[in-house]
Structure of Polyisoprenoid-binding protein YceI:
Amino acid sequence: MFIIVKHINNHKIMATTKWVIDPMHSEVQFKIKHLVISTVTGSFRKFDGEVITESDDFQDSEIDFSLDVDSIDTTQEARDQHLKSAEFFDAEQFPKISFKSTSLKKVSGEEYKLNGDLTIKGVTKPVTLDVEFGGSAADFYGQTKAGFAITGKINRKEFGLTWDGVTEAGSIVVGEDVKLIINAQFTKQA
């Protein structure tokens, strides 16, 4: 077990455990309205994350997470290239989207509220996400895993993603609200 013990004036203050993202059993998706009549789903294929916790229920954990913008995948190469361009994410200048928690609080049962700072395209804003803790279990190799389902919604324009298009009929091409869906499995460090 990977444990960090903090000491102040030779007094043991707390023991913490580090968990790292298991990318083979995790996914990061987003959904956004297209022409206001349908939804486009995309994902990020490359991401990193870790959780530092003091308790088995993960309350008050410290969470750091980042996405590789160049790994965006909407199943349409031309759209992906447009999203990576300066008109949207500007992957060349801003290669990462990052999140750092400020609090994780249990609401009831397995439901939590996760607050933190989300940085997209150089703009940092506070966000609140809903978290469902799926529990923890040992895998075939004796590693302890913990699973989480994280959902939320952000307004893309608040993060500098301001590109707009309007059809000849006056329909908005891309909606402003982006739904986030993250299923994350973390591995306890031994």
The longest strand covers residues 123-138. Confidence is low (pLDDT under 50) at residues 1-8, 166-172. Helices lie at 77-84.
